[in-house]
Structure formats: structure tokens, C-alpha cells
Amino acid sequence: MSDIVIIGGGVVGLTCAYEIASLGATVTVIDRQQVGLEASWAGAGMLPPGQCSGPSAVRNLAKQSTERWSQLSADLLEQTGLDNGFRQCGALQISLENRETISTEIEAWANAGVEAERLDTSGLMKYEPVISDRLSIGYRLPTMSQVRNPHHLQALKQACLSLNVKLMEGVDVRELSLVENRINAVSDGSTTIHADQFVLASGAWSEQLAGLAKIKIQVEPIRGQIVLMKLSEPPFTHIIEDGPRYLVPREDGHILIGSTEERVGFVKENTEQGIQGLIDFATSVVPSLVNATIIKAWSGLRPKAKRGYPYIGRHDHVDNLVIATGHFRDGLSQSPATAQLVCDYLLDRPRPADVDSLAFTDASYGDTK
Ligand SMILES: Cc1cc2nc3c(=O)[nH]c(=O)nc-3n(C[C@H](O)[C@H](O)[C@H](O)COP(=O)(O)OP(=O)(O)OC[C@H]3O[C@@H](n4cnc5c(N)ncnc54)[C@H](O)[C@@H]3O)c2cc1C
Which amino acids bring their CB within 6 angstroms of ligand 1? Predict the structure, then answer.
């Protein structure tokens, strides 16, 4: 019997476990495989300095997460000795096709209180001389950061273990026992786990699991492919981003090239077309990458809430379940504030009024069939 059972050990579930266990709760994290191997592992680790569109609750979630990353990383380092690779590296936002919205984007960042420096070709090349001189317009976000996903997940896992969080790996939750308006236990058919409260943080698989508690949410998997390249020295230090595609340089010369957005169900694989498209993009932006060694490629399934922003909250009809899912392209970056908000629900702490918009409506309850 735990105080809290968290279903899903991705970055959202593990950060929730870490935060609530730090406050003294007895926590169990259940995952059907080893924790931290799905979207949270596959991601590129970009941490934008906030978000300048969408509902205010989401913008606040992004802002609060940005403010929390540095301290969270320092705490994890102190508690585990593991460096998660959090670095403020800055980003160059570029446009191979001279995106017309560049000016609007700079203005939106300024309105959000985030520094954004407009750049022409020579300005871009001043910061990163290796980029193509075909690029004529862009801007710099000096406060954009990055983290190395596998290192961060490892640090979170170790920190959770040191706080006596119980990890139940290899338990594929298939049943929720709902008694009136409370969940009594979850089970994989053979192991049954009881708790006072439950958190559902199962990424792209959350829609089906929420349905077991009669809560109707719409979360679909959107595949993203990544190609990993390597040079002996890091050729540039900024993240370079062009809309959904990007290059993320690591300090050891690895460069992640991402990413595709594909609606292919739960099929986690790479395609020739996906990989070639990313390589072509990379060499168009940084021509010298033709000399880079391609190390490997992978893909992951982003949990996309069809309504366009994540579900975080408690449903009126199920008293002891908090759902935190559907972060799509921002689940890693927004995990710190998501976990704080989940703790607010679990502990019945006061919450800002606008966060109710991240929860659910009465209409999203009932038998799913
Ligand atoms: C290619 C790519 C690049 C990305 N880049 C970034 C980025 O730069 N910055 C950023 O912020 N975000 C990025 N993202 C998005 C980010 O990775 C996700 O939003 C985030 O990882 C979601 O975390 P999660 O914990 O909700 O889900 P997941 O990491 O998918 O974790 C869900 C967990 O639930 C478990 N689970 C599922 N079903 C069950 C069940 N029935 N029983 C038990 N366990 C179950 C799974 O095994 C898994 O471990 C990227 C994603 C991809 C794919």
C-alpha cells in the first residue's frame, strides 16, 4: 500500500514521483518496461525559455518550468552525483524558406518578456560561422537551454530511489478497479497495487488507461524521428531551429538532428525518407556536416492531446486520480511545473485559477464503449 501510485515512468511520472516523495509521501511508480525508455528518452532535450502562444495556463506552465530547471538540475546533481547536461546554450531560430512569421515571433517573445535578438546573415554567421550563408533572416534566443534526456532520466531515477520511491518495472497496467468515484487499485491481471491516490502519466498510451476510469481524453501518438551525428569537436554551440526541425549540439561533438511529425499510430521505427530528410536539412543549414559520422537514428511517440494542450488535473467524477499527459513536443521542458501542479492536486494545495483550464469538463466522463 502506497500513498501514491504513479502509472508511467517517463519524465512526467518520474518528476512527479521525485517531487512528491521529497515531501515525504510513500510513492510507487509502475511502468510496463524499464522507466524512461519511451518519448522522454527519445526527445532532443530542448528547453525553450517559455512559450509565447496558447492558453495562459500553458504559458505559465512553460514559464514556471523554465524558472525551475536550473535548481532542479542542481538538486539532482547534489543528490545523485549525476550531471543531467542542463546548459544554457542559446538558440538561433532560422528559416531556410524565409519564414514570414519571423518578425511576429520576435514580437511575441518580447511580449512574453523573453529576449530575442533579430539577425541578418552576417549576424547569424557572427554567432555560428559554420552555418550556411543562404540564411538571410533569423533571431537569437540567448536563454534557451538544453538537457541530455538519458542523463536526466537516470538522475531522476536515482534521486527517486534515494527517496525510497518503489519502482515496479515490467508491470503493464490493464485494469483499474473503480469503486463508486474512487480508484481502489490497479492491476496487470496478476499483480494488484493499492494506493490512496493515483497519478496517470502514461504518455501516448494515456487515452486507453484513462478510459478504464471512464474518463474520456483524446491523446494520440505522433512519431518523431531523430538522427545522431558526430564530429570530433562540436561545430557550433547554439541549438539551431527552423520550425519543427532542429540541430542540437552536445558538448562532446554529438549533434541531434530532429524531427519528423508523423501520424502512424504506435509504430516506433525509422524510415529511409525520414532519415534522409533530416540529413538533407542538417547539411543545408550547416554544410560541413557532410563530413559528420552518422551514429544512429531512433524514433519516439509524442503524446499529443488533440485539444492542443496537456491534460493536468483531477476529474470531478474520480476523486483520487490526477492525470498529467498530452504534452506533445514540450513534455520534457514542461515537466518541472507539471510535477508541481500534480503535487498541488495531490496535497490539495491552493492552485492558480487559470490551471483549471488544463483539467477536464464534465462531458469527458462515461463508459467509453
Ligand atoms: C523525437 C522527439 C523529440 C522531442 N524533443 C523534445 C524536446 O526537445 N523538448 C521537449 O520538451 N520535449 C520533446 N519531446 C516531447 C517529450 O519527449 C514528451 O512530451 C515527453 O517525453 C512525454 O513524457 P511522458 O512521461 O508523458 O511520456 P513517456 O516518456 O512516453 O512515458 C510514458 C511511460 O508510460 C509507460 N506506460 C504506458 N502504458 C503503460 C501501462 N499500461 N502500464 C504501465 N506503464 C505504461 C511507458 O512505458 C512509458 O515509460 C520530443 C519527443 C520526441 C519523440
Answer: 7-13, 30-33, 35, 37-40, 42-46, 172-173, 201-205, 209, 224, 226, 258-259, 300, 302-303, 325, 327-333
